[in-house]
Specification:
Layout: H1 4-7, H2 11-26, H3 36-44, H4 48-54, H5 59-64, H6 68-80, E1 84-89, E2 93-95, E3 104-112, E4 115-124, E5 129-132, E6 145-152, E7 157-164, E8 170-174, E9 183-185, E10 191-192, E11 200-202, E12 205-212, E13 218-224, E14 229-234, H7 239-245, E15 247-251, E16 254-261, E17 276-284, E18 289-296, H8 301-305, E19 310-315, E20 322-326, E21 334-339, E22 344-349, E23 363-369
Antiparallel strand pairs: 1-23, 2-3, 3-4, 4-5, 6-7, 7-8, 8-9, 10-12, 11-12, 12-13, 13-14, 15-16, 16-17, 17-18, 19-20, 20-21, 21-22
């Protein structure tokens, strides 16, 4: 794990260190020196597999490809490329939320000293590297833990938030911190765990559903990853139903709640009999102001969907298409793209996806995945 001291090195300091290493390597050689900036720029344009190979070429190249400056540059360029899909097949474990800037938090069961225990790990799907996190301590084993994963784009820090099922204890861990331990947090919002967690991190804010202990009503809690402060968003009017049944999505950098309705306005499963989608968008967090819009599905919806039952995957960042996936993919796996601007729906068969029937229920799809080359130890 990179230490905070390393992360805080300026690019000038990193370049000076690298230049000294480069001079030592070139000593006695007639080859003309290549500016460090050019080396870094060339490497940042390579695909991930090539970078993994280049790390094994020499100590000089390995040091370049481990610089925090380079890893941040690669992540920035990866984020600017056309969006990628990530298909996650998870066995004997549970995803703690969605991928965040190339990394995934996973809850799994491991055997330590002959005893089974639930543990957390950070996974990099691109490099297949796994970082096991310290155990989260609770007062009693009977209390379940809910874990969530967020990213602060200002300080460029990943954090894991854990809360007990009764809402009594909140702990946070910062990746890359010299002190790899959990810290207790104070929360002034009396809330406890929601049975169907589908949290999402948008622009440094982690949103998750919960229940107000005082009023027993649904709410969405906003956790600012940088300040580590909590803020509640209470349900008002018809918004309460959307909070209960809606899927949280990233809609143009804002929190969205999306549901599927039939001709009578009843919220239900997404299938060929669905009539429209309703989307609520959080326009102002401070004032808790929402806008809502309805997207009527086109006539060809029934034929395209057929007998499939669908899930919401999310909203494509560049096109604002609503993306769905087949609920029980057995032999073939499809994604469905609904474009509300031109009122069309398209079915796309995904090739090369492992369709193991025994594990089909754990196949999950995520939009806008970016590749990250960070190394953890």
């Amino acid at each position: 794990m990179e230490t905070q001291q390393t992360l805080n090195l300026s690019w000038d300091s990193q370049r000076n260190m690298l230049s000294k290493t480069s001079d030592n390597v070139r000593e006695g050689s007639s080859a003309s020196p290549i500016p460090t900036d050019v080396i870094v720029d060339i490497f940042s344009r390579l695909p991930l597999k090539s970078i993994a190979i280049c790390r094994c070429v020499s100590k000089l190249w390995a040091s370049v490809l481990r610089l925090p400056y380079f890893t941040e540059l690669f992540l920035t360029k990866s984020s600017s490329r056309p969006p990628q899909l990530l298909h996650a097949r998870v066995t004997n474990s549970e995803l703690c939320g969605r991928p965040v800037y190339g990394l995934v938090c996973v809850k799994h069961v491991r055997v330590l000293d002959g005893e089974k225990e639930t543990a957390l790990a950070i996974c990099n799907p691109s490099t297949r590297q796994v970082l096991h996190l310290p155990k989260v301590e609770t007062e009693t084993r009977r209390l379940k833990l809910r874990s969530m994963f967020g990213y602060d784009p200002v300080d460029k820090q990943y954090k894991v938030l854990c809360m007990t099922s009764d809402g009594g204890h909140y702990q946070v861990l910062t990746l890359g911190s010299p002190n790899r331990s959990w810290r207790m947090l104070e929360c002034c919002i009396p809330h406890y765990d929601y049975p169907l967690p589908k949290e999402i991190c948008i622009d440094g804010v982690l949103y998750y559903k919960s229940i107000n202990q005082s009023t027993q009503t649904f709410l969405i809690v906003c956790f600012d990853v940088r300040s580590e402060m909590f803020r509640p968003i209470e349900a008002k009017g018809s918004l309460g139903r959307a909070m209960l049944t809606g899927d949280m999505v990233n809609y143009g950098g804002r929190l969205g709640l999306i549901t599927c309705e039939d001709n009578r306005g009843n919220v239900g499963a997404i299938n060929r009999r669905s009539s429209r989608f309703k989307l609520w968008v959080l326009e102002d967090v401070e004032k808790q102001e929402w806008s809502d819009r309805v997207f009527v599905l086109p006539a060809e919806w029934k034929n395209v969907v057929g007998e499939h039952r669908l899930n919401f995957v999310g909203v494509a960042s560049r096109t604002n298409e609503i993306v769905l996936s087949s609920w029980y993919p057995i032999n073939r796996f499809y994604l469905f793209y609904f474009d509300p601007e031109i009122d069309t729906v398209v079915r796309v068969e995904m090739q090369g996806v492992d369709m193991d029937v025994s594990n089909y229920a754990v196949l999950q799809t995520f939009l806008d995945h970016v590749e990250d080359v960070k190394l953890y130890a």
